[in-house]
Design goal:
Structural class: alpha+beta
CATH superfamily of the largest domain: Transferase(Phosphotransferase) domain 1
Bound molecules: adenosine-5'-triphosphate
Protein name: Receptor-like protein kinase At4g00960
Number of domains: 2
Largest sheet: 5 strands, antiparallel
GO molecular function: ATP binding; protein kinase activity
Distance between the termini: 34 Å
Helix content: 25-40%
Strand content: 5-15%
InterPro entries: CR_Ser/Thr_kinase, Kinase-like_dom_sf, Prot_kinase_dom, Ser-Thr/Tyr_kinase_cat_dom, Ser/Thr_kinase_AS
Shape: globular
Keywords: ATP-binding, Kinase, Nucleotide-binding, Transferase
CATH topology of the largest domain: Transferase(Phosphotransferase), domain 1
Strand order of the largest sheet: 1-2-3-5-4
CATH architecture of the largest domain: Orthogonal Bundle
Amino acid sequence: MTKSKKFLNNIIKTFGFSSSKGGQNEEDLEKIAAQEQKVFPFETLVAATKNFHSTHELGRGGFGPVYKGKLEDGREIAVKKLSQSSNQGKKEFMNEAKLLARVQHRNVVNLLGYCAHGVEKLLVYEYVANESLDKLLFKSNRREELDWKRRYDIICGIARGLLYLHEDSHNCIIHRDIKASNILLDDKWVPKIADFGMARLFPEDETHVNTRVAGTNGYMAPEYVMHGHLSVKADVFSFGVMVLELISGHRNSSFNLNVDAQSLLDWAYKLYKKGKSSEIMDPTLASSAVTEQVAMCIQMGLLCVQGDPQLRPTMHRVVVILSKKPSNLEEPTRPGVPGSRYRRSHRPVGLSSTAGTSGESNSRSRAFDSSFTATGTTSAAPELDDRGKRPAES
Ligand SMILES: Nc1ncnc2c1ncn2[C@@H]1O[C@H](COP(=O)(O)OP(=O)(O)OP(=O)(O)O)[C@@H](O)[C@H]1O
């Protein structure tokens, strides 16, 4: 048995995963094998984190606390410790381990290994030094460090990471919880997509998965919230929200500028229609902004958050747009309101009217029905937890 297969099997055995359909791709597993040292002895993690000392705590997420640690060889790590009380967390935790064991990309956080010690379950990641994008953008006085070049590079990096998840990894992975707090920045400001607790793996040959709505308020695509239609376009929507947040410095979920707009998306769209989209730009970008690029990114962001998922570009298209000089892009239609029905009145003639069931031949673009049925108002959806999150499927 190859080292990598052993690693995956070990994870499955340790955390009690059922084996996946269709078997594993040997080549992918070889890549995983390239990483050494997958199983961490508990004592190593105790020593690295000074016995999980509170001063080493980086933060706390849905699973429980995350600690910073240093291995004997000098490598810095982040250790995610599953809180023993959380059943919900356990499921997401396993999901994260299983999915991350399959992916390796510069813009996706690297899982170094895992540890199971009695009831303790821990995941070990590369330490990402600059913390999460939301802390930098919304919660610190360090926002000015994010000049335009950095923000543009972050947008491009996240786009490449998402493209990899959607199209280039062995299976199509829909992250489902793309948001600023799930983007970690390393010491060179390279963005890493993190937190795969909500992510869904879609084998090529599967067309349907019954899923419950899970995600974070302010980022979730309307067709997903209202009808449970899950496709890669839900991630594209969340990506678009994040692009507009990065450019404006405003959080969509708590948008409260004294302007005639209900949300950041609405505000950006209204200004765009008046030819004044640059007014949404964070004033701290004034000296570093490349006007044409900013305008292009706003337009691209608006294309991503369009109410109709079929009109949103794929991540492949987004990456192409970003790699070219600003050129003519199509006109965005009205943005979707996260948590409400999208309007169909702006649909161009000739496009099918069924949300998320585009005629694209790529099975990755297909939508997935949900066991969650909304009744037309957001109040029908499951309650949000204290972090603005909907629970994952039970
Ligand atoms: N690899 C890492 N390197 C550095 N910091 C990390 C790393 N992973 C997580 N963190 C930090 O640990 C904290 C908790 O992360 P975690 O992914 O568990 O939850 P979250 O994304 O903040 O919340 P939620 O689970 O609700 O999405 C975050 O503040 C994040 O900045």
